[in-house]
Amino acid sequence: MQAEPTLGLDDRRGLRTEEWYRTATRWTQLTLTESDPLHFDPQVWVDIMRENRSNAACLSAGGYMAFYPSQVPFHYRSKYLGDSDPFGALVEGARSLDMHVMARVDSHAIHADALRAHPEWAALDEDGEPYEHWAFPGIWVTCPFGPYNREFITDVARELVRDYDIDAVFANRWQGHGISYSEHARRTFRDDTGLHLPTGPYDADDPAWRAYPGWRRQQLSDLVAFWDTAIRDVRPHARFIPNLGSFAAHELERDLIDKHYPLFFIDRQGRDGIDAPWSAGRNAKRSRGVFRDRPVGLISSVGPENATHRWKDSVTTGAEMKTWIVDGFAQGAFPWFTKFNGTISDNRWIEPVAEAFALHATVEPVLSRLRITADVALLDPTSTGPSHLKQDGERFSHEDGFYHALLEARVPFEFISDKALTAEELARFKVLVLANAERLSEAQCGLIADFVRAGGSLVAAHQTSLLTERGEPRSNFGLSDVLGVDLQEPVRGPVRNNYAELTGEHPVHRGFEGAKRIIGGTQLVGVSAHEDADVPFRFIPDYPDLPMEELYVREPARDPAVVTRQHPGGGRVAYLAFNIGSLFWEALQQDHGRLIGNTVDWALGTEPRVRVDGVGLFDIAVYEGTSEIAVALVNLTNPMTMRGPIRETMPVGPLTVSVTLPPHARPTAATLLVAGQDQPVTVQDGQATSTVPSLELLEVAHLTWDGGTP
Predict the structure, then answer these.
(1) Residue 110 — φ and ψ, nearest 5°?
(2) What SS3 class is residue 334?
(3) How far is CA 592 from the centre of its chain?
(4) Which SUPFAM superfamilies match (predicted)?
(5) How confident is the model over 217-273, as pLDDT tens digits?
(6) Distance between CA atoms of residues 398 and 378, nearest Å
(7) What is the structure's pLDDT at 592?
(8) d(CA 549, CA 62)
(9) Half-sphere exposure of residue 478, counting CA atoms within 13 Å on the CB side?
(10) Helix 279-288, helix 318-330: angle, nearest 10
(11) Residue 164, pLDDT above cutoff 90
(12) Contact indicator for 461, 435 with CB cutoff of 8 Å
């Protein structure tokens, strides 16, 4: 047990203050295993944290298993704990390095003795039987809504903040696993909604299924507030910060988050299967699209992460590890790595983590004072996509395609959450992209229409706005008057051998020289264009793909495939009448990616504020402040670019970075933060251009100027 610390210099270091979390920007997480007290050495971990320049630590404490001498009844201790206190030793070591410290508790399972004494702690199935753990027989899954979280975990949290010099308690797997039919959950749901908990497969027409997500959201939001209040009563500066995991930030109640959730952690520890490496940066964008005022961290594992294959105590390649961490923090999510098992059997992760964290420490002094900005926003389809209950691979396939196309086109962009779609949020951007926002409410359609009338531009695809927010079909697009199209035929497909013919002359034809047509879609929406709209691509009517002798066009191109329109207020609108996003992600045909990039570029209507020229694939983030801009470039050029398991990163360069300056601005310096060198700047027609001679994994080009208007 540790005595209460003496304050003093702590305020200046950001330690033990109300806003301690603002200087907790590089995290080491160690998740201990039951046998660790036998043979692991806490000093090894103190040395690792010193080497990788971590300024914060998340350390295993308790919940499912205690690694300190807990006095809470039925708090199972590691059977090897004896008289030792591994958690306390790690806390002391981290504090010796002036680090912030958070205690990790896991609340998702209990042991047999706890179940016998407190059957009300367990989650129950529809038949009223306790859920036995799916991966480790002999333990049982807990109910997130009842006294286990409200009483037991609260007692554990209070004990930790009372007896140890820590800043927070971090809860893992606290949200439950599926629906718990415990008596407490049944009773509370019935009292709150007048309904019985939903059973069986999801049914959108069942009132109980419709009520459950909102009820769960409120219950878990109230729990966050309860926990946070409970530990702050013991240690005023401390916070209770549950890991969001699969439970996204937008699913919590906004007013409770504002009061009780000072920062977020995204638990996306690595790629799942063939996730592209830019998925790390997307995680940061998605969180920022909901709560722009909250710091966010990306939890990354030193091992491979895959829903199918589980090697939790393993090590992935250094290149993959570094890319995941760096792409995350380049897009604004401070780095956090996690290691399972305090005994190190493979130390190949230590150097890559240290290198990635050193890059963050190098660029943080500049980037931390700036804000990430973009002219283009992609709507996060959490509830506006095809179905909020589909698997991620289905739900986000349209977004995946647009995301990668914009990355290839080198268009810096941000997310807007459909949960945070307001006039103020839209006003931050010049172009809004709807990859396939099927489910839009009348209010959301109205906001988007107002955005376009005020001069904003819009790019929309496929079935955008054809359904209400509840998934009910509309007879026409909710955004018909904005898009300049009317529905003639619902989505048709799968269609084979479809093509779209170039018609007339239009900027979206750029790069298609020599082609009279390009590959079309596999899911087509039949539309007619308004008189004031242009149709730069039309579908060629279907014709057979076999026998080969029958493979020829019978009829001229007819139905609109791409429709563009310029509004009186200056806004530009483009609609693509097929599944271009999901199809590009599936087939990666260059013409589809080029068409997306061309359409967004046309919608922007002006020279982009930032342009990067040179060979390679990069993730770009633009940071701005008063009289300065920083362009972060993450090099994704590698032999496994589209699969995630990176073997090596291929250095590229030279690259040129061009920035549109404010009127009358005079550049004063261009510095490459990672290389640590100044670069010459040339100015022509309001564009400041500098060179990045070479790019390994990360570079940040930082430009400052005098005069002008930001």
Answers:
(1) -135, 160
(2) strand
(3) 24
(4) (Trans)glycosidases, Class I glutamine amidotransferase-like
(5) 899 989 989 999 999 999 999 999 988 754 455 566 667 777 777 888 877 776 776
(6) 11
(7) 98
(8) 70
(9) 26
(10) 20
(11) yes
(12) yes
Phi, psi of 262, deg, nearest 5:
-75, -20
Residue type, 93: G
Contact in structure between 341 and 31 (CB atoms under 8 Å): yes
Mean pLDDT for the stretch of residues 548-576: 94
Place of tokens 């977004």: 399
Q: Which CATH architecture has domain 10-262?
A: Alpha-Beta Barrel (3.20)
Token pair 């013919």 in the structure block, residue: 501
The string over 10-25, giving b where at least 16 C-beta atoms fall within 10 Å of a residue's C-beta and e elsewhere, is eeeebbbbeebbeebb
The two three-digit tokens of residue 460, written as one number:
């929309």
Q: How many CA atoms lie within 13 A of 707 on its CB side?
A: 7
Say whether pLDDT at 9 is over 70.
Answer: no
Among 199, 111, 191, 183, which residue's Cα sits nearest to residue 146? 183
- Between the CA of residue 417 and those of 113, 430, 597, 639, what are the distances in Å? 44, 16, 21, 33
Give CA–CA dist 32/269, Å, rounded.
17
Give the max Cα distance, the chain. 86
Q: Is the pLDDT reported for residue 386 higher than 60? A: no
Residues in Cβ contact with 237 at an 8 Å cutoff, skipping those fewer than 6 apart = 16, 17, 18, 20, 167
Query: Within 10 Å of residue 349's Cβ, how many Cβ atoms?
Result: 21
How many alpha carbons lie under 13 Å from residue 132 in its C-beta half-sphere? 5
Nearest Cα neighbor of 574 from 555, 602, 547 is 602
| Structural domain boundaries in the chain | 10-262, 376-604, 610-706
| Beta-bridge partner residues of 168 | 102, 239
Is residue 617 within 8 A of residue 637, CB to CB? The reply is: yes
Tokens encoding 523: 């899911």
Tally DSSP H helices, then E strands, for the chain. 20, 31
Tokens at 260, concatenated: 């009780």
Please measure the distance between the N-terminal and C-terminal CA atoms of the chain and give it in whole angstroms. Answer: 53
Contact 443, 406 (CB under 8 A): no
Angle ∠(627,630,635) on CA atoms, nearest 5 = 170
Query: What is the DSSP annotation of 199-226?
Result: -SS--TT-HHHHHHHHHHHHHHHHHHHH
d(CA 177, CA 143): 8
Report the interhelical angle of 590-604 vs 580-587 (nearest 10°): 140
**φ/ψ bin of 455: left (φ > 0), alpha (ψ from -120 to 50), beta (otherwise):** left
Tell me, what amino acid is at 280?
A: A
Tell me 705's DSSP state.
E
Burial class (CB in 10 A: 0-12, 13-18, 19+), 476: middle
Taking 3-state DSSP, the helix, strand and coil percentages for the chain, each rounded to the nearest 5, stand at 30, 25, 45
In this structure, what are the phi and psi dihedrals at residue 678, rounded to the nearest 5 degrees? -85, 150
The tokens for 458 are: 């819009």
Among 171, 169, 152, which residue's Cα sits nearest to residue 160?
169
Instruction: Among 3.90.70.10, 1.10.3720.10, 3.40.50.880, 3.90.650.10, name the CATH number for the domain at 376-604.
Output: 3.40.50.880
Cα-only R_g, the chain: 27
- Read off the pLDDT of residues 490-505 as tens digits, 9 standing for 90 and up: 999 999 999 999 999 9
Output the CA angle 306-312-318, nearest 5 degrees. Answer: 80
Measured between alpha carbons, how far is 402 from 582 in angstroms, rounded to an integer?
8
Can you tell me which residue has the tokens 């670069």? 679
Which runs of E-coded beta strand occur in 295-375? 296-301, 334-340, 371-373
Cβ atoms of residues 524 and 491 within 8 Å: yes
Q: How far is Cα 100 from Cα 330, in angstroms, rounded to an integer?
A: 22
- Name the architecture of domain 610-706: Sandwich (2.60)
